[in-house]
Amino acid sequence: MFLMCLFVFVSAKGCSKKRSADVFSAPKRIETANTLQNKSAFEPDKRLKNLLLRGELKGEGQGQSIEATTNIIWLRDSIIWLNVKKFGIEGLRVLITPDSVYAINRIDQSCTILPLKKVLRDYGVPGNFDMIQRLLLGSAWFFPNMEMVSDTLDGLHHLQGETAQYKAQYGIQDGIYRWRTGLFEQKRAQNQVSLLFNRFITTEMLGPFAHERRIDAQTEAQGRLALDITFTEVVPNGAETYRFDIPAHYRRLP
Length: 254
Hints:
Elements: H1 2-7, H2 33-40, E1 50-61, E2 64-75, E3 79-86, E4 89-96, E5 100-105, E6 110-115, H3 116-122, H4 129-137, E7 148-153, E8 156-162, E9 166-172, E10 179-186, E11 191-203, E12 207-219, E13 223-236, E14 251-253
Parallel strand pairs: 6-14
Antiparallel strand pairs: 1-2, 1-13, 2-3, 3-4, 4-5, 5-6, 7-8, 8-9, 9-10, 10-11, 11-12, 12-13
């Protein structure tokens, strides 16, 4: 179920749908790691208070696959709400706050409430709510206290670094300085998450915004999980309200 909860915001290798490739120029020089981090980890426009996204997704994992549509609502620094529909019928609704994840499964009439840190830890990700909203907005998130080294690779600015527990790599597109690829690896547990951002379209208050995203996650606990999402509608400041009510008769899962 958390294939939908966590990974609907980002993306990487795994699903079979053929993607259109952006055309861009390779860097002409190597920039410092500090410069690349500052430019790619941008702060959203102060006028941007919320965001409405609609899209199509394909997911694979735990012996299951899904093709569906999704609606996502982001309220700055406070809420990420999403649902997943098949043939127009809602199957899953999720609410993410800075400290918790709430999920409603309409199919079996159940609900799950978990600490956000636990959900991220289960996938080998050491981040927090800020990391998730940065992934949604396409703003690069960097590990605290991880020293980065810059170079160029595969036509992109390339950043890499590691700590005692984690390794990280980032591909940053020259000119627009947007996050295009990412690879996070938890050394001891051998958990790995790779990301791809594609089809950048300049959008009001967002600048170049990736309309196609893919993710591939390999974890000891969950196996391989993959998600491919295409945003068909992006509306800045188009979603001020949301609904999330857990019906009283729904079973609470551990």
